UniProtKB/TrEMBL annotation:
Residues 1-136 form the G-protein coupled receptors family 1 profile domain. Pfam families: 7tm_1. It is found in: Membrane. GO terms for molecular function: G protein-coupled receptor activity. GO terms for cellular component: membrane. It comes from the Eukaryota. This is OPN4A protein. The chain crosses the membrane at residues 12-39, 51-71, 98-127. InterPro entries: GPCR_opsins (IPR050125), GPCR_Rhodpsn (IPR000276), GPCR_Rhodpsn_7TM (IPR017452). The gene is Opn4a. Keywords: G-protein coupled receptor, Membrane, Receptor, Transducer, Transmembrane, Transmembrane helix.
Length: 136
């Protein structure tokens, strides 16, 4: 069972969600910038000066979704086995279901699709470049 009080459970879950979302958002931004630098070098150079803005965006993005349960849009609570805390997945309220849906779309599906598209485009560009070099 969870050994601490509700406040520690909420803090534990908040940190897990915040750092998890920040990690996935960072990987998404990194893959997108790499794609721009490899596939579109003219546009890729402009992102060097904007690294701090991108980093700030990642943290604001993660904080937005991590603080939503603190603002009563979704909730944090003990996991089913009670040994840790996370987002309360099994809930019946409409707001909590919308939060979970938004979390799935904007914090899982969209980043994964962007990462997949970025690396696919990088591989395609490398493959086309390799064929062009081999023909010469």
């Amino acid at each position: 069972r969870w050994l601490f009080d509700r406040a520690v459970c909420t803090l534990y879950a908040f940190c897990g969600v915040l750092f998890g979302l920040c990690s996935l958002a960072s990987l998404t931004v990194l893959s997108t910038v790499c794609c721009l630098k490899v596939c579109y070098p003219a546009y890729g150079k402009c992102w060097d000066a904007h690294a701090a803005v991108l980093l700030l965006f990642v943290w604001v993005y993660a904080l937005t979704f991590a603080t939503a349960p603190l603002a009563e849009w979704g909730s944090y609570g003990p996991e089913p086995y009670g040994t840790a805390c996370c987002i309360t997945w099994e809930t019946s309220s409409r707001e909590a279901k919308l939060y979970i849906l938004a979390l799935f779309i904007f914090c899982y599906l969209l980043p994964c699709l962007l990462i997949l598209a970025s690396y696919s485009l990088i591989l395609w560009t490398v493959w086309v470049s390799r064929r062009a070099v081999q023909q010469h």
